[in-house]
Write a structure and sequence with these properties.
The complex is a heterodimer of chains A (about 300) and B (about 350).
Chain A: H1 13-20, H2 22-51, E1 55-56, E2 63-64, H3 70-77, H4 79-113, H5 116-131, H6 134-145, H7 150-155, H8 167-192, H9 195-203, H10 208-237, H11 240-245, H12 252-260, H13 266-288, H14 292-295
Antiparallel strand pairs in A: 1-2
Helix pairs in contact in A: 2-13, 3-13, 4-8, 4-10, 5-8, 8-10, 9-10, 10-13, 12-13
Chain B: E1 18-29, E2 32-43, E3 47-51, H1 58-66, E4 73-78, E5 81-82, E6 93-96, H2 108-118, H3 123-136, H4 152-164, E7 170-174, H5 182-199, E8 202-207, H6 210-216, E9 219-224, E10 227-232, H7 234-239, H8 244-249, E11 255-257, H9 258-265, E12 270-272, E13 279-282, E14 291-303, E15 307-314, E16 319-325, H10 331-335, E17 341-347, E18 352-353
Parallel strand pairs in B: 3-8, 3-9, 6-7, 7-8
Antiparallel strand pairs in B: 1-2, 1-4, 4-5, 9-10, 11-12, 12-18, 13-17, 14-15, 14-17, 15-16
Helix pairs in contact in B: 2-3, 2-4, 3-4
């Protein structure tokens, strides 16, 4: 029996075909992102993983593609790598804690105190730093922190001096760089917290501090954890800010960079990169318990 | 129970002492005046309802009593003590919120224990009082559940238990039944009233539902545009409304005014007559002694199961609504009344001048 097709429906044969074949439709939707994800992302990571178990000829700098545990062993047994790793974890943890301390009141003000118009302005203010180039911001801080920079100039009359190029400067700059990634998820979870819960807690006799500890904090903990995934992992991997304002400071990212791009030992760099990946994985497992991954 | 309260700072109204006293209470949000000079004495142990349409200021008054908002002007006394500038945690009142405001990360028991925990009541006593409170709202055995695992009606009971376990001198209820379906709401109305009699705590109940207010309250304060229009027992507010607003908001507005009032009653004021007080009679029937009558034509008949509403256009102008119980009639009988010439008859004492 010939199908009766309205005239205006004829040009949409492709759409009709896709409508009848959901599998093809799904394929068309996902092929590009999946290709990107597998080739560019997972394949690159797998290659890095593999490289960690190769070695490098010290004369020709040629990579010898034979399985060896030399690099992993060296990373695990050399004291300097251990101290650099611990130092990096320390910096990343400090940056994360500082970001939480700064983000909580800012996000609370925006979500619970500010009027709608001020709230929108604040959110834009939180976001603007994200739209500026990372390098511009890092170099701006280099200028601020330098010997003759604004920070020293302001502090000098009080007989004080700024941190200069140091670990403190690295923590300062990384906190500045990643703060928006902490404010936004905390803001979102505070925004979702009904005001009546705060009223109820006060009504039942709790002071502000108790309300914060017993009601607000447990409810927004997943948001804080989600923000900390950003601040922690971004700090773990950073090497540019460290090289710009860190002075003599050397973090894991710098060691990896020097080995892979700086003419060092690529397989050793890859093994060090694995350390960083494993630490971040462990951190993710830790925060998963708070339900933070559902919050992303 | 007194019919209305007097504005006097030392008012000792009737026998019971005053639990909450509002004096010239006002609250503005920017240019918007939400509460405009409210004077009200709420007696110890009474069930007082703040009734009004949304935006009339009733919820703001409740929030002012709880301490969530600070008044722009005026004062609040709780058991004779000025609490106007005290924080919520310094006031001997507890609130049941419209959305229940249960803490989602705590179990039912932890929710109920919360007030006692922050007041450092020892653990044993805390647990026992919380379990008792849960039993008193028929939720024994639910203590380990999370609020999300409970129905609306159950959450409502948890909220009640969480407030009552603190034994406040005044319980504030902000439209607590609004989110429940009709059957459950009617059941909770009865239970709430019983509970209030049991615990003997002053209940201040906010609602926009006039029926709820009439069934539950000892007294009703009718709010309109930030002011109290009338305070009195349900019967007083219903049968003797003081203003056209109260006549219209509590029950069906049924006003006789202007020339129609002049012709029918011999008085040109505004009068409210409740629909169920009006009898529909034959066009030729004459009113007895102490009765008034108005002739008219039935314009509309609305059959509603237990009763029927008749809208009657009066010869004198305007219209009145009459409500008749369907004692013997069926929907067929009453629907045939449309267009018929009738006589509306009511007793004179049921005419209430409303300003």
């Amino acid at each position: 029996m010939p199908a009766i097709v309205p005239a205006e429906a004829r040009p949409h044969r492709a759409s009709a075909f896709l409508h009848r074949h959901p599998g093809v439709r799904l394929g068309a939707l996902l092929s590009a992102p999946m290709l990107w994800y597998f080739v560019m992302y997972l394949a690159a990571l797998a290659l890095l993983f593999l490289t960690a178990f190769w070695s490098q000829d010290s004369f020709t700098s040629q990579i010898i593609r034979e399985l060896t545990f030399e690099n992993v062993e060296e990373v695990l047994t050399t004291p300097v790598y251990r101290s650099v790793t611990l130092q990096t974890i320390g910096v990343a943890a400090t940056v994360t804690v500082l970001c939480i301390v700064l983000a909580l009141p800012a996000a609370f003000f925006a979500a619970k105190v500010a009027r709608p118009r001020a709230r929108r302005a604040l959110i834009v203010m939180f976001l603007v730093p994200l739209w500026a180039s990372y390098l511009v911001k890092a170099y701006a801080w280099r200028g601020l922190l330098s010997e003759s920079g604004v920070i020293n100039w302001v502090l000098e009359p009080f007989g004080l001096s700024g941190p200069g190029f140091s670990t403190v400067a690295v923590i300062l700059v990384l906190t500045y760089l990643w703060l928006p990634y902490m404010i936004l998820p905390i803001y979102v979870s505070l925004d979702r917290l009904p005001n009546s819960l705060l009223d109820a807690s006060g009504d039942l006799g709790a002071r502000a501090g108790t309300t914060f500890r017993s009601v607000v904090l447990p409810i927004i903990l997943p948001g804080i954890a989600a923000g900390s995934i950003f601040t922690f992992s971004l700090s773990m991997g950073d090497y540019i800010a460290v090289s710009l304002v860190g002075g003599d400071e050397l973090l894991l990212g710098n060691v990896i960079y020097n080995n892979i791009a700086g003419g060092g030992n690529t397989p050793l760099g890859a093994a060090l990169a694995l350390v960083s990946v494993i630490i971040i994985m462990l951190y993710l497992l830790l925060v998963r318990r708070t339900g933070a991954l559902k919050e992303l | 129970m007194p019919e209305a309260t007097q504005v006097s700072p030392t008012a000792e109204v009737g026998a019971a002492p005053v639990a909450v006293s509002l004096r010239g209470l006002s609250k503005s949000f920017g240019d918007v005046v939400a509460v405009d000079g409210v004077d009200l004495d709420i007696l110890d142990g009474e069930f007082l309802t703040l009734l009004g349409p949304s935006g009339s200021g009733k919820t703001t008054v409740l929030r002012l009593i709880a301490g969530f908002e600070m008044p722009t002007a005026g004062g609040i006394e709780l058991n004779g003590q000025d609490v106007t500038n005290r924080a919520p945690f310094e006031r001997d009142v507890n609130t049941v919120f419209q959305d229940y405001a249960l803490f989602p990360h705590m179990s039912v028991l932890q929710n109920v224990e919360y007030g006692l925990r922050v007041k450092r009541v020892p653990k044993g006593e805390r647990r026992q009082r919380a379990l008792e409170a849960l039993a008193s709202v028929q939720l024994a055995g639910f203590d380990e559940r999370k609020p999300a695992q409970m129905s609306g009606g159950q959450r409502q009971r948890v909220a009640l238990a969480r407030a009552l376990v603190n034994r406040p001198s005044v319980l504030l209820l902000d439209e607590p039944l609004g989110a429940l379906d009709l059957k459950l709401r009617e059941q909770m109305q009865v239970e709430l009233k019983q509970l209030q009699r049991q615990v003997g705590i002053t209940f201040i109940f906010v609602t926009h539902d006039q029926e709820e207010a009439l069934t539950m309250s000892d007294r009703i304060a009718v709010f309109n545009a930030g002011r109290v229009e009338q305070v009195g027992t349900p019967a007083a507010v219903y049968e003797r409304p003081l203003t056209p607003f109260v006549a219209g908001f509590v029950g069906t507005s049924n006003l006789l005014q202007g020339t129609a009032a002049q012709q029918v009653l011999g008085n040109a004021g505004v009068f409210s007559i409740r629909p169920e007080k009006i009898r529909i009679a034959n066009a030729l029937d004459a009113p007895a002694d102490g009765e008034h009558a108005a002739a008219g034509v039935v314009r509309e008949v609305v059959y509603a199961g237990a009763a029927t509403r008749f809208v009657v256009d009066l010869e004198a102008g305007g219209y009145l609504v009459a409500l008749q119980q369907n004692l013997q009639t069926s929907s067929m009988d009453v629907l045939s009344m449309r267009g018929r010439q009738v006589q509306l008859i009511w007793r004179r004492e049921h005419e209430t001048p409303v300003g």
